[in-house]
Amino acid sequence: MNRVLVAEDLYLLRDGLVHLLQAHGFDVVAAVESGPELLKGLLELRPDVSVVDVRLPPTLTDEGLQASLEARKKVPGLPILVLSQHVEQLYARELLADGSGGIGYLLKDRVFNAEQFIDAVRRVAAGGTAMDPEVISKLLASNAKNEPLAALTPREREVLEQMAEGRSNAAISQRLYLSESAVAKHTAGIFGKLGLAPSDDDNRRVLAVLAYLNNR
Amino acid sequence: MVRKIGHVLALLALVVVQLLTLVSAFLCLVLCFGLGMVFLFPPQVRMIRWVTGMTRYLVRSSSGIVIEPPYLPKPPPPQPQPDGLYRSHRTLYKTPRMPAWNDRWKWMLTDPATWRDGFWLLLDPGVKMVLLPLLILLPGRGLRVYGLWCELLLAATASSRMAGQLSSLNRARNLAVDTQAAEMRRIERDLHDGTQARLVALGMTIGAAEQLMESDPKAARALMAKAREASAETLTELRRVIRGIHPPVLAERGLGDAVRALAMDSALKVSVQVELTHRPEAPVEAAAYFAVSELLSNAARHGGAESVEIDISTSGANLRITVTDDGWGGADPSKGSGLTGIERRLAAFDGVMAIHSPAGGPTTVTLELPKVLPQHWAGDVAKLPRWKLATVIALYGTAWCPLFPQGVVAGIFKLVGFDEKAWFLALHLPDAWQWPCIAFMILLGTAMYATAVAIPAHHKDHPLAPRNPLEGVGFC
Questions:
Q1: Does the beta carbon of A204 lie under 8 angstroms from any beta carbon of chain B?
Q2: What is the greatest pairwise CA distance in chain B?
Q3: For chain B, what is the domain count?
Q4: Is the model's pLDDT at A69 over the cut of 90?
Q5: Hey, is the C-beta of A135 within 8 angstroms of any chain B C-beta?
Q6: What ipTM describes this predicted complex?
Q7: What whole-number distance in Å separates Cα of residue B267 and Cα of residue A144?
């Protein structure tokens, strides 16, 4: 059973998240509403995964993000899924900067689709990544003039997007209605074209792709 | 020398024009106020202003004395009323010609500079004749004296300068209010046409699903799924509107990171340098942010740029932003509405924009917002460290003791020959040591006071942050 911490300042949303997580078999160990409480909870409880809103009291700026970064500095790889009303490449880069995985960054709207949201929470808890499609499309857009990326086939591009969002080969094959071996073939093609070292570990592969996209 | 003689000759040649102008001005005054031929007045004033303008130019190039034109700012063009007519006092006109003429007439007639110009014109030929020997024998000295004379009557007065400032402030305020209002209208439209309409549709879909719940649960479920999609779309729409009002990154992180985020989202190669220790006020941040955003999209859309450099820095209390792109240049604020928009936004903060964009590039746009950072960030007032402050207080608190009772008063006692020794250290010592001790006490007290004065004074001369003098930039 996964122990979860929820940090969200709006009561309704916090309550909704707690119920949603409990309904999917998570054990919510704490539901906090401010930055300092969050940092204390993260460091003391060491939850298996935390769902954190970027904007938290007292400053109502990026308190949640700062607390998460701080906690991950002290406890490398502490799994945290960051939720926000808006996504920024800047924040995504900061969250991914330590390259240790166990990190997620999603728009709050993604909670609407409970199944996919829970899937993302599980992935982050297992040390994987969950990046919002909007972050990935922004990343790809700002890499538009990148030669090797332009050389990808449309199918490879689709696979790359799914991979960058943090999905495993199996999950990608399900979403794109491809066989797993076909996905593996595309992944090998992508890694070859981008000049990345192939790896069998899903998480490490995702991080390599994100690092590549971030490294303009 | 030859140049100076040339200037003298030019000034003397101008006398001919001046005399002609003087005659015509006299005739004009008589015709204008004697016979009511008022239409002669503006051309006459314009003619005199041409002569004074010419003189100002000659004085500046010959003796380096810069004489600011003192004239009040031109009246704005008349604005039509809602019914399309133009009003001037109690009369309505169909065309703006007459009201504009009236405004111009009043502007020239009431400007004290007009009459000072006339006075100058009357006296100047005489002054030139008096100065003639000096101008011929010592042209350098003579031109300077002549320049000073002109400055006396032709320069701007405090009140004309104030009037100019007032009118530019008025203009800036009107622009700021207009921009604000336009912005509000845009936001209202966005919310009305986008978000509000979507929410109405969402409510209707949910209503339909509610009705179908009993009879056709399957269709109801499909409708609910549709409603969920619609709500996600509404959120996306709302996010776009919010970004246009005040981008969330700007609120959360301030100007530096917001511009960095902007740079990351741009398809161009953008390098950002930020040198800002504190956050400026929110309205300033927003104006600067939107200006940079507009410049970036301009560079991509019209400039054909591939890489852009953004530099945000402070000099004193001023905020300066430079955006340089490697596009094909030729940016013209009079053509692009985007650039005028930036100027308008900045005008509210007395900000200015300088564009250097030769054909073929590169384009450099410099935005300067004066005095938008509080003074204490600019390093003007450096705070005294606590230990220094304690030392100064202690010195002031104790320096009186050696100087007055132990030094001066003891000395007086000794001079007068009082027997009383009281608590004066010197008087308790052997005779030979008394005077040296008194002198030492006075010296000690004086030195302590001097140190107490010197510490803060020395500190003020070396503020923590060095002050950069403003470099000259050509603004357009």
A1: no
A2: 122
A3: 4
A4: yes
A5: no
A6: 0.86
A7: 7
Domain covering A136-214 assigned CATH 3.90.550.10 in the classification: no
Contact: A141, B228; criterion CB under 8 Å: no
Domain assignment of residue B455, given as a range: 386-461
Radius of gyration of chain A (CA): 17
**Delimiting residues of CATH 1.10.10.10 domain(s) in chain A:** 136-214
Each residue's pLDDT tens digit, A120-132: 999 999 999 999 9
Domain termination residue (choose one: B325, B342, B377): B377
- pLDDT top residue among B359 and A48: A48
How far is the C-alpha of A66 from the C-alpha of A68, rounded, in Å? 5
Contact A142 B265 (CB under 8 A): yes
Q: Is A90 on the interface with B (CB under 8 A)?
A: yes
B444: its two tokens: 């000690």
Instruction: For chain B, say whether A158 makes contact (Cβ under 8 Å).
Output: no
CATH of the domain at B198: 1.20.5
Nearest residue of chain B to residue A84 (CA atoms): B248
What percentage of residues in chain B have a pLDDT greater than 90? 20
CB A29 within 8 A of CB A5: yes
User: Does residue B58 sit within a domain?
Assistant: yes
* Beta carbons of A90 and B264 less than 8 Å apart: yes
Closest alpha carbon to B353 in B260, B476, B470: B476
- What digits encode the pLDDT tens for the residues B435-457? 888 899 999 999 998 888 888 77
Residues of A within 8 A of B246 (CB-CB) are none
Are A93 and B264 inside 8 Å of each other by CB? yes
Cβ atoms of A183 and A162 within 8 Å: the answer is: no
The CATH class of the A3-131 domain is: alpha beta
Question: Residue A138 and residue B265: Cβ atoms within 8 Å?
Answer: yes
